[in-house]
Amino acid sequence: MKHDVIKLDGKKAGSVDLDEALFGLEPRADILHRMVRWQRNNAQAGTHKVKTRSEVNYSTKKIYRQKGTGGARHGARSAPIFRGGGVYKGPVVRSHGHDLTKKFRKLGLRHALSAKANAGELVVIDSADLKDAKTGILAKAVKDLGWKRALVIDGAEVSESFAKAARNIEGLDILPTMGANVYDILKRDTLVITKAGVEALEARLK
User: Fold this and answer.
1) Per-position DSSP letters for the chain, written without gaps between them
2) Fold annotation for 2-44+97-205
3) Quick one: pLDDT at residue 8?
4) Do 28 and 111 form a contact (C-beta atoms < 8 A)?
5) Quick one: average pLDDT of 190-195?
6) What is the Cα–Cα distance from 60 to 92, expressed in whole angstroms?
7) Is 197 left (phi over 0), alpha (psi -120 to 50) or beta?
8) Is pLDDT above 90 for 35?
9) Average pLDDT value over all residues in the chain
10) How many CA atoms does the CB half-sphere of 111 hold within 13 Å?
11) Segments making up each domain of the chain, as ranges
């Protein structure tokens, strides 16, 4: 499929052939949902922790005699039913992550790219290079192009001057091709890919 290519100043720079297998699929919400859930679960720290009955700081002495009190039999104040006792089946340190096959992860990324292309939120630029690493120059170009919340995907390496200029612009992120992921693509209003990025994505996802 043909797609127009522009420069950072908004002028046309020809066109590029996009692979239908990457940008021409009918997006499936269930695949995208599973991918986002996989990413967010893997990112979750899982460091929540409470003290169990064996971990609270209490004496192990029997709190009162076994028989003759008219009450229930208890052996320790650390029981969960007492104030200050251990928590029964509370959260422990663990991983929230789960596995997805490489084949499915590649499929999810293809559907994310296709979702942006189908929605008209895909922009292909000639390159992400700047002569001067000036934030003001890039901010003006981004404003003129109408990018409010955009993700820029470059080739194997991100242009140092572009990355430096984009560092302090709110709503503009830049990633190398290997950093492209479903969650970051979907949460931005505009997906911007350089020509080098298109080639590298096609090589990565074949």
Assistant:
1) -EEEEE-TTS-EEEEEEPPHHHHSS---HHHHHHHHHHHHHHH---------TTTS----S-SS-SSSSSS-----TTSTTSTT-PPTT---S--------HHHHHHHHHHHHHHHHHTT-EEEES----SS--HHHHHHHHHHHT-SSEEEE-SSS--HHHHHHHTT-TTEEEE-GGG--HHHHHHSSEEEEEHHHHHHHHHHH-
2) Ribosomal Protein L4; Chain: A; (3.40.1370)
3) 87
4) yes
5) 94
6) 23
7) alpha
8) yes
9) 92
10) 19
11) 2-44+97-205, 50-90
Token representation of residue 6: 């522009």
Closest CA to 82 of 66, 58, 65: 58
Residue listed under structure tokens 């893997």:
42
> What six digits make up the tokens of 4?
């127009």
Q: Please report where in the chains the tokens 């009162």 appear, as a residue.
A: 64
Q: Which two tokens stand for residue 51?
A: 């003290």
Q: Please state the pTM of the whole predicted model.
A: 0.83
The two structure tokens encoding residue 176: 């190398």
How long is the chain? 206
